Amino acid sequence: MVRSFALLGALFAGFLVWLIVSADAGRSNPLFELARALPYGDKLGHMILFGTLTLFAVVGSNFRRVSFGRLSLGRFSLGQQSCWGMRPYLGALVVAIVVIIEECSQHYFPSRTFDGYDLLADGVGIMLFSLLSHYLEKRFSTGNESSSRN
């Protein structure tokens, strides 16, 4: 299952690169037209596209998580936990970083405009599909498998 998701993720990432390059070049395609025709279609598209990429990245990396080490602020210590007691998925973190760079890069293309709501929609998609990934991780893990992955 992991290899299938990794392959699907690579193919889907290629599809997203094509969409982004098309948008940067000011070219239209049927997906852009559909997004314009639907109410909030652009935001739904951002949520679904980057959420789907997150799902492929998380499952394709076998639910690998990252830790930012020990964080101490005086007497307050998060220990080995981070992000409010959770260790984020590596795949979701990578997608989030790429999304931030891509959205901010729109400033440099005349055919694009930076929209904070697009970035927010991307973040909502990443979070929702991370929750779906968490559900899948719990559903498909048995006994010691989940602890050996983390």
Which stretches are poorly predicted, pLDDT < 50 over at least 5 residues?
Answer: 77-83
Shape: globular
N/C terminus separation: 18 Å
**What is the count of helical runs?**
6
| Beta-strand content estimate | under 5%
Strand order of the largest sheet: 1-2
- Please compute the radius of gyration using only Cα atoms: 17 Å
Question: How many distinct folded domains?
Answer: 1
Mean pLDDT: 85
Oligomer: single chain
Structural class of the secondary elements? Answer: mainly alpha
Helix coverage percent: 55-70%
Q: What can you tell me about this protein's structure?
A:
The protein has 150 residues and is mainly alpha-helical. It has one domain. The chain contains six helices and two strands, in the order H-H-H-E-E-H-H-H. It has a two-stranded antiparallel ribbon with strand order 1-2. A hairpin with a 2-residue loop joins strand 1 and strand 2. Helix 2 packs across helix 3 and helix 3 packs antiparallel against helix 4. The longest helix has 25 residues.
Quick tags:
single chain, 150 residues, mainly alpha, 6 helices, transmembrane helix
Describe what is shown at a glance:
The protein has 150 residues and is mostly helical. It has helices at residues 2-24, 30-37, 41-60, 90-105, 116-140, 145-149; strands spanning 72-73, 76-77. Residues 77-83 have low confidence and may be disordered.
